[in-house]
Amino acid sequence: MSLRVHTNRCKGCGICVEFCPKKILTVNKVEKVEVISEKDCIACRQCEMRCPDFAIFCTQITKE
């Protein structure tokens, strides 16, 4: 799973941080969401579904 945060859309509300069951997201010093540990993501997509600004996207990585 690959997580992408569009910082131009992110307002740093922290909703995605609160709903992440693995706590792999944080709000940084400039009030933008940052991925702490992408490898620990369980692909639940709670961050993506809860973001009111559509600023975070989960993408499945497929191996060819």
Automatic annotation (TrEMBL):
Entries under InterPro entries matching the protein: 4Fe4S_Fe-S-bd, 4Fe4S_Fe_S_CS
Keywords, comma-separated and alphabetical: Iron, Iron-sulfur, Metal-binding
Residues covered by the 4Fe-4S ferredoxin-type domain: 1-30, 31-61
Keyword Iron annotated: yes
Key word Secreted present: no
PROSITE patterns the record matches: 4FE4S_FER_1, 4FE4S_FER_2
Source species, domain of life: Bacteria
Pfam families linked to this entry: Fer4_7 (PF12838)
Family annotation (Gene3D superfamilies): 3.30.70.20
Single GO molecular function: metal ion binding
PANTHER family on file: FERREDOXIN SUBUNIT OF PYRUVATE:FLAVODOXIN OXIDOREDUCTASE-RELATED (PTHR43122), IRON-SULFUR-BINDING PROTEIN (PTHR43122:SF1)
Name of the protein in question: 2-oxoglutarate ferredoxin oxidoreductase subunit delta
Organism whose genome encodes this protein: Anaerospora hongkongensis
